[in-house]
Amino acid sequence: ARAQRLAGRPKEALGDLSRAESMGPEPAEHVLERALSLRALDDPRALEDLDAFLASGVDHAQARVARAQVLARRGDVEAALADYDLAFQLDPVPDIDLARGELAAANGATARAIAGHEAALRVLGPVPSLQRVLVRRLLDTGAAERALALCSTAGAGPELRLLRGEAFARLGDAEAARAARREALAEIDQALAHRPSDLLRVERVRALLAAGRRAEARRELDRVLATSPGLRDAQEFFREMSAARVSPNPSSSSPPGAP
Fold it and tell me: Do the Cβ atoms of 236 and 245 come closer than 8 Å?
């Protein structure tokens, strides 16, 4: 059943579990597996199975995360965040904290998301993905000085350089902001020279936009969309830039491959 679910066949997984159930008492792991398959189908019965599994005395990070997701879809954000908190205690991995922070921030609790990221970093040590998200959330709340301080201890990389540039800009240091953005663009260009990829080109779009080179950014984005029309980050940039009427390409009013 687990193999069926992981292969994207939750209905088949439920069929396997139903046949196993007819052969004798149902072990707790079957209850969890059924709940995960039902969740994949967005079936409301998933919550009942997750409640039953967790009430059996077996605490399990995956079950807590699954229930948090179900509760969040039902609009019970506080209960979902509580499950994420317990899941992180059971299995302190970045993905759980990132999901918890995303849910909190999306529901107006950015300060709670920030506190969670800071607590997670104290447990996990330096994790670049968490550090970048924390910097962005600090910038979103106007805490540019805290964001800049974190940037100075969070290693290197073009995305972090761009965030540092944003922090400098928020603090009114235009020259330092320009320097950080130039460094980010140079680093991306160097990487592209050695290993061209559309993901790196999307980062180049981001750097060009930050540097105010919007026409170049749009041309770069058009090239990315021509070869990778389904790339999510590129699609998001296209929507944002189109909404802002940024240097539109008269030959392309929608992303390649878009309906």
Answer: no
